C-alpha cells in the first residue's frame, strides 16, 4: 500500500512539473519573441503644453470622477485644445488650400516610415547666433556623408538639442527653405519633424517652409521629444530607424496632437 502511495505521489510530481515546465516554456517563448524597443518621441499633454500663439490651450474637465450614485467607480473626462500644441502633426491643408486635411494623409506616410535623424546639436551649440540657426543643405549633405543617402518616402527629424528648453514658448529654431526644397525635390520625403515649436524660424512672418512643404503634400511634426535618445541608436549600423506617427483622426483638421514612436528595424 505504501509503495502504491509513493508511486502515486511520484506520478503527481511528474505531471505537475511537466505542466510547470510547459508553462515556463510558453512564457519563455513569449519573452524571447522579437519585439522592437520603441522610443516615445511625444510630450505628455498637460496644462504646461505649449501652443501656437492664439490657439486654445489644453484643459481637462473631470465630468465624472469617482464612485457614482450606484456605487460604481466611473471616471470620464473631457479635454479641449487647439490642434497645434505639444507634439503634433501639421496637415498640408494648414498652409495650402488644396492640401490634404489630416485624415487624408495616407497611412503609408505615417506608419512604419523610414526615418533619418539630422543631428545638428553641436553645430547649434557652437553657433555665434544660435537663435537664428536654420538647418541648411550643407547639414543634410554632411549627414549623408556619414550615414548614407536619405531614402525616398522618409521622414526627416531635425535634432537641434533645443528641446532642453521645453516648455519655453519663445525658443524657436527652424529649417532653411533651401533645405526643405532639397529634401522634397532631391529626396522625395513625406514628412519633416523638429524638436522645436516650428519648422520655420520663430521670427518668420511669412512661413516659407510651412507653405513650401504643404504645397508638396509633406506634413510636419513639431515639438518632437526625446530625439537625443535616437542619436545613440542611429550610430548603430544595424539599426534602421522607422517611425509611427499617430495623430488623432479628425475630419477636415489642419493638424492634431500625435503619438510619435521610433524603433530600430
Ligand atoms: Zn502646427
From TrEMBL:
Keyword Signal attached: yes
Keyword Signal: yes
Alphabetized InterPro entries for the sequence: KFase/CYL, KFase_sf
SUPFAM superfamilies, per database record: Putative cyclase
Stored Pfam families: Cyclase
Keywords attached to this entry: Signal
GO function term, MF aspect, one: arylformamidase activity
Signal peptide residue numbers: 1-19
GO BP annotations listed: L-tryptophan catabolic process to kynurenine
Family label: Belongs to the Cyclase 1 superfamily.
Protein name: Kynurenine formamidase
Source species of the chain: Folsomia candida
Lineage: Eukaryota, Metazoa, Ecdysozoa, Arthropoda, Hexapoda
